[in-house]
Write a structure and sequence with these properties.
By secondary structure, the chain is an all-alpha fold. The protein contains 6 helices and 2 strands, in the order E-H-H-H-H-H-H-E. Helix content is about 75%, strand content about 5%. It is globular.
């Protein structure tokens, strides 16, 4: 018999590993700086050291395409994100502004994963304890 819950357990393990990696990354300033530099340079296609709204749009569209997310974000949504990141109103996003955003984003991801883990652990226990015959498959 094969457990239908194996994929669920693997997904939970992946989420736990992601949260752990993010926690380590947030504590290691050198590693965090390297991630910021990497993300920044992948968005900064002009190479001028700042991000403009067109570069952000191109990056987000590519990410959505790569993930199979349709439709890609519209211009108003992208402009709203851009304006949120552009803290000083310069009409560009600096590496420092991106770093602040990524730090908040990673912290939020850790919180969300933690909530999901608690929720899934509760349901997993209930399913295993109450309905073992539903988990086993021939």
């Amino acid at each position: 018999a094969e457990y239908m819950g194996i994929q669920h357990v693997q997904k939970m393990q992946e989420m736990k590993e992601t949260a752990s990696a993010l926690e380590i990354l947030l504590k290691d300033e050198k590693a965090f700086s390297e991630v910021v530099n990497s993300v920044f340079s992948s968005i900064d296609t002009s190479g001028n050291g700042t991000l403009d709204v067109e570069e952000l749009e191109e990056f987000l569209s590519k990410v959505c395409d790569d993930m199979g997310i349709k439709p890609t974000p519209d211009k108003l949504f992208i402009e709203a994100i851009f304006n949120e990141l552009d803290e000083d109103g310069s009409k560009t996003i600096s590496k420092d502004e991106l770093a602040k955003f990524l730090r908040i984003f990673f912290e939020e991801q850790i919180k969300q994963i933690s909530k999901m883990m608690k929720h899934h652990q509760a349901w997993g226990c209930l399913l295993l304890c109450q309905f073992p015959h539903n988990i086993l498959r021939s």
